[in-house]
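Onboarding guide, step 5: your first structure request.
Type a short instruction followed by the sequence, for example:

Predict the 3D structure of this protein.
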Amino acid sequence: MKKIVTIIRPDKLEDVKQALEDIGCHGLTVKDVKGRGRQLGITESYRGRDYNVDLLPKVEIEIVAKDEDVENIVDTIIKTAQTGCIGDGKVFISPIEDIVRIRTGERGNKAI
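The system replies with structure tokens like these:
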């Protein structure tokens, strides 16, 4: 099992959710986050004054998936969230040792 954490632009969330649902990936957790990468923020103008916004709004999506589903999920996220511009986001993949469904006590792949 793997945990897939992706950080994307907020305006891509609905497209990514729909694309994931289309491939049968229904379970996910979504958080509003702020951050920056290589772009180091952006410069905005307001009433003639420039100011630097160094933490940009992003969306973090967490998914736990079976090993055999990971590549399809990651490919779907990339295809759907990619604009080709700086700030598209990142995907992180980590191993998961075990999962327990609280309601039934099921463990492992049965609990996903």
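Each response can be followed by summary notes, for example: The chain has a mean pLDDT of 91.
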